[in-house]
Amino acid sequence: MAEPRAGFWQRLQQIPRYYVYLLMAAVVIWQILFPIPLPIAPSSATQGVYDAISAVPDDKLILISTDWDASTNAETGPQTEAIVHACLQNDKRFAIMNLHPPMGVKLANDIAEQVAEQYGAEYGVDWCNWGYKYGFANVLIAMAKNIPKTIGDDFYGTPVAELSMMQGVEDIESIGLVIEITGLATITETWIGLIQGVYGTPFASAYTAVMAPGYYPFLDSGQMQGMLVGAKGAAEMEALVTRPAKASVIMNVQSWAHVLIILLIVIGNLGFVLARGPRGQGAP
Amino acid sequence: MNPEIAILWGGAIATLGVYTILYRENPVSRLFEHIFVGLSAGYLIVFIWTQNLEGRWWKPMIHEGRWYWVFAPVVGLLFYFIYSRRLLWLARLVMGLFFGIAAGYFFRTFFPIYSPQIYACFKPLRADPQIGWSDVVLHNWLFVIILFTVLSYFFFSVSHEGRFGRTLGRSALLGRWFLMIAFGAMFGNTVMARISLFIGRVQFLLSDWIGSFIPWFAGRGV
Amino acid sequence: MWDSIQSVFQPTTSPPQLYRNLAVALIGSFVLLALLHRFLGPRGRRWLIAFVTFVGGLYLGLEYFLPVRTAVLWPTAIPNPNPDRGANLLTPGIEPVGIMMSVIGAFTVGLGIYSLCQVHGRSLGQRRPGWHNSLAFFLAMVAMLVFGFWAHYLPKVDEASAVMPVPRAIYEMLFSGLFMPLQAATFSLLAFYIASAAYRAFRIRTAEAGLMMAAAFIVMIGQVPVGAWVTSGLPTTGALAFFRLEALGEWIMTWLNAPAQRGIVFGVAIGGLAMSLRIWLSLERGTFFSEQG
């Protein structure tokens, strides 16, 4: 009788990967089609981003650095959308720019265009897009001293100095808040090391959930005013701006996908422990 | 011309084409991989020119008469000697310049980045006479203990022998446990990130694509 | 000093003057490079590379450390309201150097593209297995190049116009209908792989693995709405509020994860500083550095 039992526990550890894939897909599809809505409460880190946006003086711009691409679109896209909502709801003028990867500048531009239309915000007056600027630290160090010259043309090929909202914008003193939206590590350190830490420009961020844990120390030290953590942060921001959208759905679906993964890990470990038997035999 | 329909169908076919790799390596996913790399390369060239070189190099040089911008391609193109054995050293010359500048950036950003991190370690560890042993003080103790034990784990210069060494070893062991908790938290967040990406794609497939011809799906997932 | 340098680099006022300066600068650069190549031996080249590396790092480091920016070293002090007030001799060069380096860097993107074209060109030319994929690579690249530039240089159309010009429509199709979904789908495959890997490899073999798993479970469930729903019966204030899963997850991130991450940050800082010093002083050895000549 012991043999078949051990076989069962062994098999419990070896569910074919196709079944795991199918289960994952099934849970996600089920929750998107038949959602069980659950409430979302903003965390203090998300609230920090919102407060930082609303605290920007009217004569200064918010600079949103959209350093993400389609690979993280499901997290950073809704983050960008919710942040743009927050800027426009608070009547703040904002500029988008992109250091890397270049895809982010168009994706963010499409989002900003759509959101701006909802508020009747005009390009060049209420918001603008400085485009993709190659060079990371070299761009930031020069931008701190002279924005129009460093940026040159905007996303559409117009010199930024010709945009009406850019009149009087000379250097980093004209920026009231930098918001970094990214899935790339080290860009944050560049912003903090060359801008926030030197000129005292307030800094907030929105990260993919993968990299967010590594930046909690910067939140603790006050170098960051707030941080959006992946789709969770985006959903919380959507709740703050009262515009529940994609991220809120993602978090609901996410709930059950997490439950599935926890169940899978538990099943695998159950098989692992029980297959070993009393003397620890039979483990793979 | 309205590209909406083509975008939806193209997106759906591309997504499903990539997903065929979940079954096994196959020509369809291979083809889409190559298309992706090709589009990526083309897009990069377009954006490097239109968003960078045109406005920041070509226009100042040709339209504003700033002739010295001609040195930028001269130096930049030295990188391409990496493909020549005879002139490789010229590529190394310009790479050396960039490495030096990268080192310079690290020096100048070291204090702005890390000094506030050091200051933030100095947290009040004594009870406030007004508040008593509040949550904050207990948390500060926890923070400092974790920080020091984790740092001791990375302190490899002293062997874990002798009185000090054994104490250090015990501290390092505790540090390792705390690191494991941090890695667990990172793992949890990583799962969240990866699944978000898939949900994003399913939202597109169900709500946007299928929703474009079966209205019932259109309202789902957005 | 900067005034005299700037006078040399004054913009030209007429096209002939511009073209003359461009030609002189180009010829001068090529002559200089040719002379360096002709007359510098391996030792001289090594020294030149080391010198250029040193000067690059020195300029950026020195420019920062010469003026005392109180806001950086002592955050409690009042920040300098005008950062340029204490500018030193090197500060005026920061902006041109920053712009120049970013533009020079932009010229390097062709390196990777050249390499890709080389590989796929060879595959296509020799009709190697999978050559049709290389053809797809070239077609996709050329299509994006043509329609990308075409769409960018089209005259701006009336916003209210519902009809999109054909080149822009094709560019949108290539971008939103292929490029974007291909990348998003490729990275979303990770969801399947992480689920499968977690199930197959995440085993409690040691106490440390157990701790890691416990933290992972709490964070995974605490970060999502279902976590808050499971423990929604617990009060939102008082001692029991701590055990609400969303609060516990946040507590782990803030009070257990943050200090451990800070320990790692300090390690990275010291390691980065040591590495930067080695590179700056050309002490580093390896593929690139040991063959500098």
Topology:
The complex is a heterotrimer of chains A (284), B (222) and C (293).
Chain A: H1 2-12, H2 17-33, H3 44-54, E1 61-67, H4 73-89, E2 94-98, H5 103-119, E3 127-132, H6 137-143, H7 147-151, E4 175-182, H8 187-199, E5 203-207, H9 216-220, E6 227-229, H10 230-240, H11 246-276
Helix pairs in contact in A: 1-11, 2-11, 3-10, 4-5, 4-10, 10-11
Chain B: H1 4-19, H2 27-63, H3 71-76, H4 88-119, H5 135-153, H6 162-209, H7 215-218
Chain C: H1 2-8, H2 15-39, H3 42-65, H4 70-73, H5 94-106, H6 110-125, H7 131-153, H8 166-201, H9 207-222, H10 225-230, H11 245-280
Pattern of helices and strands of chain B: HHHHHHH
Write the CATH architecture name of chain A: 3-Layer(aba) Sandwich
Question: How many strands appear in the DSSP assignment of chain A?
Answer: 6
Tell me what portion of residues of chain B adopts beta-strand conformation. Answer: under 5%
- Number of distinct helices of chain A: 11
Which percent band covers the strand fraction of chain A?
Answer: 5-15%
- Structural class of chain A comes to alpha/beta
Question: Class of chain A in CATH?
Answer: Alpha Beta
What does this structure look like?
The complex is a heterotrimer of chains A (284), B (222) and C (293). Chain A has a single domain, classed as 3-Layer(aba) Sandwich (Rossmann fold). Chain A is 51% helix and 12% strand. Chain A is built from eleven helices and six strands. Chain A has helices at 2-12, 17-33, 44-54, 73-89, 103-119, 137-143, 147-151, 187-199, 216-220, 230-240, 246-276; strands at residues 61-67, 94-98, 127-132, 175-182, 203-207, 227-229. Chain A has a six-stranded parallel β-sheet, sandwiched between helices. The radius of gyration of chain A is 23 Å and the shape is elongated. Chain B has a domain at 1-65. Chain B has helices at residues 4-19, 27-63, 71-76, 88-119, 135-153, 162-209, 215-218. Chain B is mostly helical. With 293 residues, chain C is mainly alpha-helical. Chain C has helices at 2-8, 15-39, 42-65, 70-73, 94-106, 110-125, 131-153, 166-201, 207-222, 225-230, 245-280. The model of chain C is unreliable at 68-85 (pLDDT under 50). Classes of the chains: A alpha/beta (284), B mainly alpha (222), C mainly alpha (293). Chains in contact: A-B, A-C, B-C. Chains B and C meet through helix 1, helix 2, helix 3, helix 4 and helix 5 of B and helix 2, helix 3, helix 5, helix 6 and helix 7 of C.
